[in-house]
Amino acid sequence: AELLQVLKSLGRKDLGFGGKAKLSVGIVGYPNVGKSSLVNSLMRLKAAETGDRPGVTRRIQELHLDGSVTLIDSPGVVFDRTQSDAAAVLRNCVPLDKVEDPVAPIAEIIRRAGPNALCLLY
């Protein structure tokens, strides 16, 4: 509720020459972290489609919170197109049912965490 009030007050700010500020707020981040859920919470309705898998939001959407504030919901940010398939899986950029060979991501997890740490955890 506090974030909503801050956004609305910034959007209503008087610019000093008779005009009011218009605020556009981009919601960006890694895939499947709740960007669209945040938008829906701020809008207080299901304005953006959500899901429990990455890739539900496929394009940028502009949603008008009120006359002065626009929320911009974006698909997940994936920084490196040259990354390996394993890295894409570990960044949650690929739905697990689309992974053809799970060996490479598993090997990468073992390399990063180390076998001893995994044995202690599991």
From TrEMBL:
UniProt GO molecular function: GTP binding
Record lineage: Eukaryota, Cryptophyceae, Cryptomonadales, Cryptomonadaceae, Cryptomonas
PANTHER family noted in UniProt: GTP-BINDING PROTEIN-RELATED, GUANINE NUCLEOTIDE-BINDING PROTEIN-LIKE 3 HOMOLOG
The keyword GTP-binding is assigned to this record: yes
Protein name: G domain-containing protein
Keywords: GTP-binding, Nucleotide-binding
Classification via InterPro entries: GTP-bd, P-loop_NTPase, TRAFAC_YlqF/YawG_RiboMat
Chain ranges of the G domain: 25-83
